[in-house]
Each structure stands twice: as C-alpha cells, then as structure tokens.
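Supplementary notes for students who missed Thursday's class. We covered one full example, reproduced here. Read the sequence, then the structure, then the short commentary at the end.
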Amino acid sequence: RRSRIVVLEAMAPAAAHTKLKKQGAVCMDSDGLEKGSVMHHWKAFSRFLLEKMSRKKREHEKYPCSVLQTMWLYLVMAVSTPLILGLAIFAFLLRPFIGIARQQKVTWGIQRLWMRMLLSAAGAAYTIEGLENLDKDKNYVFVANHQSNFDPPLFCGMVPIFNIGMAKDSLFWTPFFGLSLCAAGSIFINRKDHEKAMKSCEHCVHMIKTYPRSLFICPEGTRSRDGSLQPFKKGGIILAMQTGLPIVPVAICGTHELLPRGSATLCPRPVKMIIGKPIDISGYTFEDRDTVCEMAHSQVRALLSKWTGDVSPTDNTEVESLLHCFKSPPGPEVLDWHGRRKAHAKTG
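Structure (token representation):
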C-alpha cells in the first residue's frame, strides 16, 4: 500500500500537479486546503470578490470606495429602470399620432431624467462648463473621450440639446436599456462587421438629415482602461464630416475614478464635463479626414488638460437630489442652474 504524499502547491509547478495527483499525492495550498476541493474554489472566489469590491489600488482618503453607495445605485436602477422603460414604450406607441421626430425627442427627455437619477444615486456631484458655447437652435456632432459607463449619463443628462448616440450593437440586447436606446433613435454599430457598420453610418446620416438633431460619438471606440485619452478612430470623424454639422469637442473628467472599466464598486466623487467651441468643418473634404481627426483629438486633449484631477474652487460639490432630477433643466443659454459654470479659459 502506497503512502499518501502531501505536496505544497508552491513546491511543484502547475503542470506537475496532475501527474502527482495520479501518483496518489495530495496538493495543498498555503492555507492547508486541498487543491481542487470545494473549499479551495470557495477561497479563490471569495478573494476575487474581495478584490473587486475593495479596489484597494484605487482607494484614497478623500474619495474612498463605498459598497453602500453601490448598493443604493443598484437599488435605484432596479426600481427606476422598469418605470422609465414603461414611459419610453408608451411614448413609442404614440409614434403614429405624434410622429417619429417628436416621439424620439420625448423618449430622449425621459432618458435624461433617468441619467440624472443614476448620477444622483452614484453620489456624483457634477460640474458642466462651456454651455455658453452652444446655440439651442443649432445641431452639432459632439466628440468626447470615453472613460467609464458614466460618460453617457453625464453627457446625455446634462446637455440640453436633443441628440442621439452611437452604441455597440451588443447593448441592444441589454435588458430594458437596449429598448430605451432604440426608442430614442440611437444607432447601433456592429464593430466586427465593416459592411454592417457602414450601413449603420449611412442610416445615421440619413436620420440626421431627415429629422435634424445632434449626434454624440466617442471616437476612441471603447472605454479607456487607464483613463487616458486614446487615439481616435477615423470612422466616427468621417461620419461627423458626412453630416455637415459643426464638431464640438467635449472632455469628460473624473468618471474613470468614479467607476473604471471592469470595476463593480463606486468611488463617489465629483465629476466634470468641459464643452469646447464648435469647429466648422464644412470646408473639409474626405481627403482631409486625417486633419479633422487630429484637430478633434487635439481639442479634446486640450480640454482634458484643464482637469487637475480634483475639484477647483469654482466647481460644484453638491450632489443633485433625486427629487431635483424631476425638474426640467433650461436651455444652454441659462447658466444659473445646478452644476453649471461659465468657462473661464477660452479654447482655441
């Protein structure tokens, strides 16, 4: 009868574990748990959850991560999402009576309410700077950086100009959220199929010219992993040029620290959105796409450079209450509103 051999996990390479186990050895980890046992897997899963929820690498004294704030956000989402979707579906059913353009604008207004509620539940005090650069009677293509899932709520909830966004097609299948995006007129892009992506872009241009509205795009293509500005993809810039609308650079700051890509826990903190001056691109052609792309990228980078990583004395630090979210915000010409500030430094 062979004796049972106990081998510590650190003493044998991973490739040798299977061979040793066939020979009757038992591989133990540093805590004395047999590798492959239920307790071993439970320990690994618990460690994974702890790392996800604590986010020790990103915690700091001033804006610590909050599990309670995260749970409050999920609760608000669970309660508000079905209600918002119900209103969006009701508006969609009214399309034959009020027309597609008005129906999408009503749905956009419902979405704005929901976006502001999410920011409030997340404990994010927001500051909007540069609204005086916009004309409420004109349409634009807003070009922004992409740091977090809270970028769309910050932009769509705070910019008082009717706009549609472009989203990856997988978001269409997200429960409730996908239907809401579709009802508001958002354009879904298949990033893996170039031919389908081009058809979606053509449909977007047709919709903007048929039913005038602004467009919100993030030319980086996906969320930044470290919060830094990534190179712009030319597809979004070409689409902007095809619409013939002025490009407005937008810098979204602080959302990466609020909820970065791959994280599950919030670090409630102030966030900021800086809106630059419109750029007229009517004189540029398709051959100038590289120039326009670099121009938009440099403008967004210049706006991001104004963000010091923390709030300035003029920034708003008060979180909007859930009840205040139900108040309809005025147009961009009114700066005396929660979180709105006039730009002090002019952008070239």
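Commentary. The CA atoms of residues 221 and 309 lie 23 Å apart. Confidence is low (pLDDT under 50) at residues 55-60. If anything here is unclear, bring it to office hours.
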